[in-house]
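Sequence in, structure out. Go.
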Amino acid sequence: MCGIGGIAYKPGATRVGQDVLERMATALLHRGPDGAHYARLPEADLIHTRLSIIDLPGGDQPLKSAAGTLIANGEIYNDPQIRQAMGAERFKTGSDCESALVMWEQKGAGYTATLRGMYAIAIHNSANNEVLLSRDPFGIKPLYFTEFEGGIAFASEPSALLASGLAPRTERSLLRDELLQLQFTTGPQTLFKTIQRVLPGETLRIVAGRIAERTIRSPLPAQTEPKKSLSEEQALEQLDYALMNSVQAHERADVPFGLFLSGGIDSASLLTAMSRLPRPEKLRTWTAVFEARHAADEADAAAKLAHAANTEHETVKITASMVWDNLPAIIACMDDPVADYAIIPTWFLARKAKQDVRVILSGEGGDELFCGYGRYRSAARPWWRAGRRMWRHGMFDGLDVLRHTPNHWRDGLTIAEQQAKQITATRLSEVQAVDIAEWLPNDLLLKLDRCLMAHGLEGRTPLLDPVVTNCAWQLPDGMRVRNGQGKWLLRRWLERHNPAAHPFAPKQGFTVPIGSWIAEQGQTLGDLVAQQECIQAIAKPDRVRALFKEAGNRKNGPAAWTLLFYAVWHRTHIRGLSPTGSIFDTLSL
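Output:
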């Protein structure tokens, strides 16, 4: 995995100095610690920081041909098939990303339709100085851009655009309100006023330093008619093929890899598939456990699964003191903010795993594709059967903490709901599609990318693969939900291939005990957060202090965490201050 960046200039614009490009590269070095490379081309500059995974000696980028120059952050899993189809003589390196360059030469701007993988790609066309920016359909890999007087700058992370000086450190108040109420932000805009996301599946064609065309490719097959009926055995056979095919493709690497194991259905399914494939050495797995009263603990279940699969397994214990000491650094890596407290275990697991591997497989996407969340089943029911709209309440509703309760925070989700109706055939698929469009790329995948890349670790998501997606999306609703349980077919597959996983047992859950941890330091943290200027601008200081003192309450804890997150995020990314020391040190400065 890597970091990419660059600038597409307007004709005649003054080009930035090498120092600007180097500041961008420095901001991306955690994504690519194995070296930075530059290409200064006619009307464009390209930057690539490399994390070597495939073709370690020969895969440096930019990759060049007579037609153009490519930089990429990603993995192309059908690279072997593309090479076989196109002929080995077309390729100069063993880099899987070179297949994207070859397919662009053949198919032009629509080249991503032939790619199976996760990617953020920039291609400079030598013939006309156009630049293409492309992102994979699920949005596994990030890509951002900002328009400025001289053209368009782009990068894997907003922090690189801020470091360049081409994007100011100013925030959008509407997006701030959305973050507070949802804990993530939706759509193309970011919390930074001049920085936008390249959307999942989108390709931008930049001509003369301006966006000339935007096209988008959905990760989901269209569903204009009800799904065809399948027998259970047919569905299980198709699912088995899809999972094994995807996991095998995602294991392709020239470096060690491992698996984050929670004890839940998704990671257990990946472990089961991985254990059926031959490998020269033991698979490595890691599980997080929290040192806190009444904290959910899946460590024993995960350890039993790991033992049955004969993995080299480690449990990472996370304590409150560890969190307070490292929280500023954890929040700092979330430059596109996600106030999901799952960033905490993900960051610590990544720090530990980086000691032994460079690639991690993770189960993101299983709930969204196979209908794992209870909110899907609730939203799919009619109102007279207690059906409830997803994301109907905001984090601060009813708490009397904010000075003004925003009423626009759900606008992005409303747009996603309207779009989902056009590509789905059932109400259940519709609510799943909303989460796939917004919650998945802008919370779960963003969290995984930033927390792993903060440690120079690549994350792969085998469940978010076209082969698995096509299988899951054709399932009738009755094979997604049955007897009140979601992921029914995935559970049946796991029961067949790994009954020790007990897939139909009630799930204990995996919740970070952030509320109880905050409550233990409630007065100190409440005072520190309440005195921050960014908090005083949006919240009532006395109510903030009360909220932190009562953070052990189920409603208050997540809200207190969100304010704590925002206070540190604003200090780091808007004020541009270094996240120094512990959370108490940082907020005291």
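Check: The first strand starts at residue 2 and ends at 9. The radius of gyration is 23 Å.
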